[in-house]
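User: Hey, my collaborator sent me this sequence without any context and asked if I could get a structure. I don't really work with proteins. Can you help?
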Amino acid sequence: MTEKRGRYKTKRRQATVSEHSHQANVITWALLQEGKYPELALLFAVPNGARVSIGQAVKLKQEGMKAGVPDLVLPVARQGYHGLFIEMKKPTGDVRTEQEQWLNALSNQGYLATVCYSDQDAMDTIVSYLDMPEYERPNWY
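Assistant: No problem. I've predicted the 3D structure and written it out in structure-token form, which is a compact way to encode the shape of the chain:
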């Protein structure tokens, strides 16, 4: 959108919503939807993108943190999948090589692993996943 300011025309900057905001919206939505989908209580975030000191980063790496692991995990089995992994990206975001490798590896292990480019995209993905038929355990468990 262009607007006049004095003698010059300037373009208004479009506000971009951060990946953090999209993900935080998904978590807030999930908390509100637990009545309808109790499995959402199991949804959690992997804090790989957190900004930490070098010392803390070394500790986290020693404890097993790995680059590229998807942002959100829903460890609920549905229709042959062991669980759902979501890599959150803002609408203009790009998937890095290590993220793509993780998504492929998780898919090969029987998880639904996907990229969502907005909070609404992630919410729709989660609802579609939870609406799939439940996994039926064998009687010998």
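In plain terms: The helical segments are 19-33, 54-62, 97-108, 119-130. You can pass these tokens on to your collaborator as they are.
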